[in-house]
Model the fold of this input.
Amino acid sequence: MALAGVRVLELEGLGPGPLAACVLADFGADVVTICRVSNGKVQSQEDPVSRGKRSIAVDLKSPEGLAAVKKMVEKADVFIEPFRPG
Done:
């Protein structure tokens, strides 16, 4: 595969982010999606653009969750986030 060995970290969201990560996974990248946790429950979406991706649920509002994501970002080649500027 063309992107074998490329590590992609994606924050779960809407719009072009999940589709871009899906295309990267289709070309062989190792894609990990970080899903939201709210009140102890995973807020995740199952849709066709989730194919070929692994996922992990992390509470980004906790210090431990934030530290875990920062460690994962250090090892990633690509970071996809769904937030608008501002």
